Amino acid sequence: MRCHSAISALMALSTALTPAIAQTAAPEANPNGGRPEIHNVEEMRKMGGYTAPGARAYADMAAEAGGKLWPVTLFYRCQAVRERNPVKAPLPKPVEVFDKVYSIGTAENNIWAIDTKDGIILLDALTTEEDAKNVIVKNMQALGLDPKRIRIILLTHNHLDHFGGAAYLKALSGAKLAMSEADWTAKVKWGTLPVKAADDFYLTDGQTITLGGQTLTVLLTPGHTPGTVSLLFPVKDKGVPHMASLFGGQGSPRDVASLLEFRRSLNHFADYTDLMQADVVLSNHTVGDDGLVRVAALQKRKAGDPNPYVVGREGVVRYDGEWRACLSADIDEAVAKAAPGNFVPVLSGQPPKQSEQTAK
What we know:
It holds the Pfam family Lactamase_B. The protein is α/β, with parallel strands linked by helices.
C-alpha cells in the first residue's frame, strides 16, 4: 500500500495569523524569505534531528526525493523538533502563473484566483477584512481583475488565515462560499467562521465544481483539520495544458493517530494525482511549494523559459515521496520513543481492551 506523507511543522499561530499586510521586511538576496533549507541527505542528518533508526531512514529518503526541488519545504516538514522562523520577505508581487490563473497572496499564504468567462474562483481568503481589502482586492486590481466578479470562494480549511477575509469578499462580490461540512460546523480557536448563507455550499469528496468552462476536483483530506480539502484542476501555460495539484493543509499534527490519518489522506490525494496525471504543484502556503522562489522566478521569466511551477510527473511523484517520507519519519520517531503496544488500538481503529484487573 502506498504511503503518501505530508509533514510540515505546526506554525506558531501568533506568527502565522498575523495580518498579512504587516509583512514588509526588506527582501533577502535569496527570495525564500530567509527560511532555512535542506538540499540533501548530509544536510538532513545535520538539521533533521531524528534519532530513531527508522525515522532517520525515512528522513534520508525525503531528502533524496525532493531536496533539489523543494529545499524550503523539506526543512519545514522534516524536523524531529519543529523550528519556526518568521518570514523576512515583502509582499510578493501579484503575477499570472498560468493562463488566467493568478498568484495574489502574501509571503506566508498564497491566494489563487482563477479567471473564467463567467467569473472568478478564489482559493482561500487570508486572515482579516483588512487583508482582503489591502492584499487580495488590490492585487486583483493591479492585474486587471475585478473583485466584484468573484463568484465562488473555496476555503480549504477552517483556520483563520484561510477564511478570515471571506465574509468581506462575499459582501463585496456576492460570491458563494464553500467549505467542508466537518470544518464549517466545527468550533474554531481563532476568529469566527462566516455564517453559511442559503447560496453557500459544502465541499465533498470527489465533487467537481465548474464555472465558465473551468472544473476543479475536490478531495476530502483530513489531518491538518477534520475537514481539509485538496484540489486538482487543469491549467494552461501559454496554451500548453497541464494538471495542477494543491494539497489543502500544510501544517502537520503531532499525535500518532492524527499523523496516520494525515498519511491516509495523502494516499487518497496521490491516487488522484496519478489518475489525473498532475504535473504541477501549487500550495496555499508558500512554504508548501517553495512559492516565494517560484514567484520571483516568474517575475524574471523570459520568452522560452520554463514555468517554474511545472515540475512534470517526476516532480509530482518526488514531491509526494518527500512529504510521505517526512510524515513517516515523524510517525516512526514518535512510536520509537513510546511503548509500541500503545499504538495497536490506533492501527485497528478499536479502543484498547482492558483486562479484568485493569478494568476494576
